[in-house]
Amino acid sequence: TQHFIVIGNPIAHSKSPEIHALFAEQAAIDIRYQRQYCPDDAASFTAVVEAFFNGGGIGANVTVPFKQIAYDCCVARGGLSEHAKVAGAVNTLLLNTALLESGTPIADALYGDNTDGQGLVNHITSLGWPLKGARVALIGAGGAARGVILPLIQAGIGALTIANRTLSKATNLVDELSTASETIDKHSIETCATSELTGQFDIIINATSIGLSGDTLPLDNDLNCHYAYDMMYGRTLPFLQHFAARDTQTSEGYGMLIGQAALSFERWTGHTVDVTQATNTLSGR
Ligand code: ATR
């Protein structure tokens, strides 16, 4: 049996065990995937992670509020993937086997990846929404937005506008990302306040935490797009309601959740996941 965990606080609501159990069923392998509560501090997180990998664990997912702490943990130890580096956050932990083979202790071989952004790109692609050359607006400039920018650019989008309630956070984010990655050219990314975002886009993505607060975004009446994606899921989403009466296809972020999980699973086990089949099975339950 291969052991996996998802570490978060709170964690009881996590759907990851159910999702990974289905992937394991598809791959016909024997796994145990558990929710792992952790007190909200860096020392406790490190202790939990070390105990897990020292005990023979294969991989861990990291969720709120530990993604940045996991990043710090890996910087100082086994390293980071390009996506984790640019996102400034880790959602997938594994051991750096090259380091282990050269005699590095387990606790110093922790390697961090981030599959959130590629999970979004894969879901959008599976919906049949064209990304190549697309004019994309991304709303939000927090951790969730940051994690998807490099994968969107790598997917070949044509133009990117980042809108945020606090404009300075969007411009700072673009400055930071262009320093962190050669693929991100700050002169090719526009920024604006969310209330100023207007006109026609191909795809608009909501990466704010707005769905949780019950607030609404100040979206302009003349803001239109062919496709609107909300990275949140599971309830009535005010962002998508803006597009309800328009000629817009919409999606919530449940497929992104499955998409990022599938990439973690593939990274850990080497087995490919049939994401469409998994999504159909899980949404039918
Ligand atoms: P996350 O990790 O989920 O991205 P975060 O880093 O706290 O969380 O970022 C939250 C994002 O949602 C930010 O872009 C935030 O806008 P500000 O930078 O202006 O704070 C946005 N957000 C949260 N509540 C919002 C609200 N009521 N109206 C508009 N934007 C909101």
Write the CATH homologous superfamily of the largest domain. Answer: Leucine Dehydrogenase, chain A, domain 1
Q: What general form does the structure show? A: globular
What is the element string, with H for helices and E for strands? Answer: EHEHEHHEHEHEHEHEEHEHEHH
CATH hierarchy: architecture of the largest domain: 3-Layer(aba) Sandwich
Q: Which ranges are low-confidence, i.e. pLDDT below 50, for 5 or more consecutive residues?
A: none
Task: List the ions, cofactors and other small molecules found in this model.
Answer: 2'-monophosphoadenosine-5'-diphosphate
What is the fold named in CATH at topology level of the largest domain?
A: Rossmann fold
Spatial ordering of strands, largest sheet: 8-7-6-9-10-11
Domain unit count: 2
Determine the structural class based on helices, strands and strand pairing.
alpha/beta
Subunit structure: Homodimer.
EC number: 1.1.1.25
GO molecular function: NADP binding; shikimate 3-dehydrogenase (NADP+) activity
Domain Shikimate dehydrogenase substrate binding N-terminal: 6-93
Describe it for me?
With 285 residues, the chain is an alpha/beta fold. The protein has 2 domains: 2-114 and 257-283, Rossmann fold; 118-252, Rossmann fold (3-Layer(aba) Sandwich). The protein is 40% helix and 21% strand. The strands form 2 sheets. Strands 8-7-6-9-10-11 form a 6-stranded parallel β-sheet, with helices on one face. α8 (167-180) links the parallel β7 and β8. α6 packs across α7. The protein starts with a strand and ends with a helix. The model has no long low-confidence stretch (mean pLDDT 96). The structure holds 2'-monophosphoadenosine-5'-diphosphate (ATR). 2'-monophosphoadenosine-5'-diphosphate is lined by residues 140-145, 164-166, 169, 208-210, 213, 215, 217. Residues 253-277 form the SDH C-terminal domain. Involved in the biosynthesis of the chorismate, which leads to the biosynthesis of aromatic amino acids. Catalyzes the reversible NADPH linked reduction of 3-dehydroshikimate (DHSA) to yield shikimate (SA). Residues 130-209 form the Quinate/shikimate 5-dehydrogenase/glutamyl-tRNA reductase domain. NADP(+) binds at residues 82, 140-144, 164-169, 231, 253.
